Protein 1
Amino acid sequence: MAFAGNVDELALLQSVRLKGSVSAPVLAVQLGVTESSAQAALDALVAAGRASDSGDAGVSLTDAGVTELEDQLDAERVSIDEDLFAEVVERFEPLDEEFAELTEGDVDSLVDLDRRASDVFDDVSAYVPRLARYQELLADSLDRVKSGDSFSDTYAVVWSELRREILSASAQ
């Protein structure tokens, strides 16, 4: 459902929860929207009592925001074919184990893993369309790692968030 700033409310709430505290510039990148749209969405969350100022130029979810998020995630799960999505999760798990073994500076292995994981992430996006944005975030993070940015500060953060999303969608 579109929220203030034409931002999907479920994606907004989940992004705030995953980040813990989020500012408009960070949220804009995460959701692929303009910074002004992200700010409008955050302002609307605060006005609705679903988020509050976290004191670090960002906002975090209130108890009401967490409750709303859980309700929306439950509704989303109802629309997912559990058996078929479980097969996708089974294909993801060995990749996730391999990911956990990667070390900083092992760019070639990361590139190979990213390539092999792309089909799984395509399937994840087919079942949970709001997660399609993660493929762009992973691609951008991979480019940053190739350019010398820290693996643990870029790609690992996005992978970890997507992992949490996949497990949440599968009710794990």
Protein 2
Amino acid sequence: MRMIKMLVGALAFAPLMAFAQVSLTTTAFHIVAVKQADGSVTEEWQKPENIVPGDLVGYRIHYVNSGKETATDVVVNNPVPDNTEYVVNSAAGMNSQITYSADQGKKFARAAELTVEENGAQRPAKASEITHIRWSINSVAAGSSGDVEFKVRVK
């Protein structure tokens, strides 16, 4: 009972404290190659309307700190969607350290260090074996926002 009173007492002061509050919004895009007037081809991230196997899909995760304090050690952990395959070197995010998992998010490592076990031995993980992507961001100032993103190919 004493612990409950302490928790209730602490929560009563919570609105008076300033907290970092980071929220995430994920948006999917259909990535299409568009030929430019000069003959070059650029990638455009468009609203997904009709996605079929073989298409590229981009995921952009927007984060914003709507709190009054800097958020530190922010982690964005995103699974690679079912029936897709991660596109090598497509994960990006300013001021973030990107790591990957090939075991449903249990262990993470940089791409060059990510391994899986096969026939009792460790070998480098293939893009098709990546199950999760994690962005670690040192800090997000109050009122600041940013984006992280990655691409997949639909199976």
Protein 3
Amino acid sequence: MASSLKRVLQNINFTAPLLQYANSSEVKKVLIISAMLTATLLLGSCDKENERDEIPYVYVNFVVYPNTLDFIPVGDYAYFSGGYKGIIIYRQLSDDFKVYERACPHDPLVENARVFVEESGIIAIDTVCGSRFLLTDGSPVEGPATIGLKQYRTRYDGFSLQVMN
């Protein structure tokens, strides 16, 4: 064990005085304690800015008919109930749909924090925090949000669009 410890210490370029005491149990204890303290500091050094509330999970599984009953023209959107704070369905192409949760990922638990589609029809904004998102992929383009809108899965058969988690 002492020879392997010496090799490890040599590989990480510790100074020579420390190497001559590598067999000492006190030095081993100090090294182990130092390693544990370093790991604790590194793992526990996450600042509050990186902490964010997650959007609560709500089961989603429904069908819409974007060509008839629930008509959504290409390049347009529609709001639907469901999810945590509602759902936006954006029809990018005739057979390509993007479906997003309306809860803002920056502040999902704030009561009125909900995204609305702007007049442009391609940007959604949370009027509480000011975050703006592209509806083509859900990515944030402005504001404090650092992650995109939560996206739901879809299955489209040319007639009906199934939306699900």
